[in-house]
Amino acid sequence: MAGKPSEFALIAKYFAPLASDPGALALTDDTCLLEHYAGSDLVVTTDALIEGVHFLSEDPPNCIACKALRTNLSDLAAKGATPAGYLLALALPGKIDTAFLEAFARGLGEDQKRYGLSLLGGDTTATPGPLTLAITALGRVPAGGMIRRSGARPGDGVYVSGTIGDAGAGLALLQCGQAAGRDADFLIGRYRLPQPRLELGTALRGVASAALDVSDGLMADLGHLAEVSQVRIVVEAARIPRSAALQALQGNSPEAMVRAATAGDDYEIAFTAPSEAAVLEAGKAGGVAVTRIGRVEAGQGIALLASDGREIPLIKAGYSHF
Amino acid sequence: MAGKPSEFALIAKYFAPLASDPGALALTDDTCLLEHYAGSDLVVTTDALIEGVHFLSEDPPNCIACKALRTNLSDLAAKGATPAGYLLALALPGKIDTAFLEAFARGLGEDQKRYGLSLLGGDTTATPGPLTLAITALGRVPAGGMIRRSGARPGDGVYVSGTIGDAGAGLALLQCGQAAGRDADFLIGRYRLPQPRLELGTALRGVASAALDVSDGLMADLGHLAEVSQVRIVVEAARIPRSAALQALQGNSPEAMVRAATAGDDYEIAFTAPSEAAVLEAGKAGGVAVTRIGRVEAGQGIALLASDGREIPLIKAGYSHF
What we know:
homodimer, alpha+beta, 11 strands, globular
């Protein structure tokens, strides 16, 4: 189309410079190549992000790129994996211009340096619909060392990294147009730029009995873990770590705690482990606070307990895309 | 949303049954797991298909599913890889109903049996835009055995599998509403259901010096191969294999031959090789006709020659998505 770069020119200009790994074959082949690594398994995840669903049209392009990459890296982190690279399938609406693409590619480039990985392959096409990105991230774990969702056992403690509820509050601030002040900046930053807990993830190998990343909402995601592990998970609401900014904004009512526990987009690691001492060591190695929020019991389902021990009824445990 | 299955119900009903490989972890984890295979490399490719761009809204859902999977398998085939599995990121518009999903999943299930692979993971979300699928396919090749685009050398022959131009003619028939008759059925079938040449691909290991799959158009794709291999590729138009159905529809004029050589969606393997005898053996093992269409020379670029040896000027060598 006149005035538009061709698909190949676009790949050459913006994406080939991101293909730093030799296995990316400079994005000039049908596939990328991952050489055999003795003693390691490969873990793979894919996530699609859609304009208006997973990010806002007015979000900065570099943040959109970084969020797409980091949500995938967060999945790798929760499995104890080290990132090996990623593939990007990009469907671009007509309104996307070179300024957008430049910022988008710059965001990816900065995160590649930050997390030590390379673009390995991709696909770029035009769409009559909203901007849609599908990233597939590949990571390596020592053979047999992937931390699964299925290993939680009665008696294990339940833990979560970082703070919970920030991103949900940041999104709400953006949606109601009240995005001013230092606390708001912090919360919106937590929505726009997840921090994949890669160092914690690798430190949790052999320590966590089960883990996942919190994306749909803490209680919803722990519900998934409980279901796959065939156990019951009990969380004490007052123990859920909430940032100072979130507490300043929402207070400390039971409702505020439920809101944090059911908001999405946290991208922290929730996990279970038999040894609290080992968890504390892993938290130190991982460079992020780790908080014990509950316990694993025999049974099924999840429960959120108030300070008096009563169960708090949850209307919804988290976010569903439908 | 009322009356809609939740994301999890949808995955459990339609997609979990496709996750036959243990490494898919029944689609209940953050990632899938590919165990280490001694002596093999992994090749990975991703392709997005968008309604109205890569398939038509009225295409049967099972064909859409199969085409999405097969275009990725065709990339693996061209690299000499054996499919290991695939991940599916699916963005569903509101109009998609259970009848669509059932047919879509049935198509995938049938192709999984046909090609011996499993769904390994995925992501399902709602979109306000057109139906968008991104498939990431993973395959294995013996270590160091991937057939790249970069290995063509002067003196090699240039070959292509199957017949060229059918899918482009099938799409044109659909677009002009003249889709009646046995020849039309054949050509439309070639557009809707590519045949990834997996057996040929594995047979070409150690035989082909370079290969790719023909998706943008034969001349365009050979142009990519020539560029990456830093050689010149010369194709004789009269040698390009065209099906009886295509010849019946379009005749044998030079224009018809150029149209075939520049149509897209063929999903055949174009390759170069030093030994014609070895190619013929590989073609037998691959169960598909292989035709020598030209030669590799020193230099750069591509040329399409008429029967009298004159170069046929190409206005466009193939399809660009922009």
